[in-house]
Amino acid sequence: PEATPCGLLRGPRTATTPSACRHRSPPALLCSLLATALCSSTSLAFLFPTAASGASASLRATQQQLGVQNRGGRTAERAGVMATASQGGQKEAESDLLWIFGYGSLIWKPPEGFHHVSSTAGFIEGWQRRFWQGSTDHRGLPGAPGLVATLLRKDRLEGDGEDHSGDIFCWGMAYGYGKEESVRLLQYLDFREKNGYERTEVDVWTAHGDAAPAIKGAVLYVATPENYEYCGPLTNQVCAEQIARSIGPSGPNFEYLYNLADALRHIKAEDPHVYEVERLVKQIGPTKETLPSVGEG
């Protein structure tokens, strides 16, 4: 078998062996560390005008589609988490908010330096989470990438050999931000998610069986199978082995996995893939001491 840029084995494109990762020539490690440091500073987002190009137009389109229905102060049926209002003063009308849906680190770590005025656990339909996205800027390094979460649609998963007879969905957290922060927030996220992720919009539901979504047009960042860091399809075992040995500027890859699994349990979310990869990584038993020393961002 031939090794891929992800450090995995290239084989037939099935659900049991990984496909080739379509990496571009990796940047130098110094560039990776610098990019992570810049990404963590919201005040430096304005240094990258290309990330902001089209942000205003996209924001206007997003705000036109935003709307909140059937919230009524109730808890999500299975998430058990109630939407929260801003502290002090009257909560801004939720239809005027820019909503961000997070399914990875955004679940437990909303963007630093920004204040969300409302939040709720919820799910999006037609997608499922997989640890099939390579990370060379946060949880891995050029030539030794970690794996982080992305989303795939049902037809893609079935094309990779998975059997999905019913509807699929993905639980996460939706955060609402005031319009005064919207443009700056999108600039920040566009740069933070630059490593293969694209911006799109989705509807967010908070309970199965609702007649309408709770949030329309939430912003979603998803790494498509066509991006150069994509490593899927991978078995859960291959994911676990890669995660257990990977570390990057933001820390060990296994910490990302454990934080995500804990956050999903906190909102009482179902995700067999994440929980099984977590179980397999804990069997391997990586620690910070067993990984190479890398400056944490």
Task: Give a verbal description of the structure.
This protein has 297 residues and is α+β, with helices and mostly antiparallel strands. It has helices at residues 29-39, 49-52, 55-65, 154-159, 179-192, 236-244, 253-266, 272-284, and strands spanning 2-3, 9-10, 67-68, 98-102, 116-125, 127-135, 146-153, 169-177, 197-204, 215-223, 247-248, 251-252. Helix 6 packs across helix 8 (272-284) and helix 7 crosses helix 8. The protein starts with a strand and ends in a 13-residue tail after the last helix. The relative contact order is 0.20.
Q: How many beta-strand segments? A: 12
Give the class from helix and strand content and strand pairing: alpha+beta
Largest sheet: 3 strands, antiparallel
* Average of the residue pLDDT scores: 75
Tell me the β content: 15-25%
- Please compute the radius of gyration using only Cα atoms: 19 Å
- Count of helical regions: 8
User: In what order do the strands lie side by side in the largest sheet?
Assistant: 3-10-9
Which segments are poorly predicted (pLDDT under 50) over 5 or more consecutive residues?
A: 9-91
Distance between the termini: 35 Å
| Order of H and E elements | EEHHHEEEEEHEHEEHEEHH
| Helix content range | 25-40%
Q: What characteristic shape results from the CA principal axes?
A: globular
